[in-house]
Amino acid sequence: MSGLKISLPALLVLSGMVMNLTMTVGCAGDSNRRLQSMQVEPAVATAQNGHAEFTAKGAFDKSPTSVDSLPASWIVLGPGVEPPPPGYMLTEGYGTAICVVPGQKYVVVGLSPVNPNAPSSGAVPAQVWNDLVITRSTMEEGGFVAATAQMNCP
After folding, report:
1. pTM of the full predicted structure?
2. How far apart are CA 88 and CA 151, in angstroms?
């Protein structure tokens, strides 16, 4: 019988391609899941020993619709703090804010991409950064969602 002959390396590459396609098709239902809103808890915290911890919670449009520990990028704004350049770096679970000037209040901003499969770090367009982080004039824009809390420094 003169059938098709495939070498072992070619067979492995072909198997990998089929497996990758199967995994991609199998996960297609989750690829459209989007973060709709988030909140930072606690909404107001008094720093203990010069710092406070915050957690981001997210609401998605598809199951699971609620995430109690949403990966977020944390930005602290207030006296003695220069805002970082537009960008994000997600951390798992929670963020810690540190008091820079005692007796002051700080705004803590949690920022996450709308796409839960987005890279763990990247750029944020300047106008989106300004609207979500600096002026906080909106809570969702340009593929990102933000929420704020306040930290009081005794």
Report:
1. 0.79
2. 21
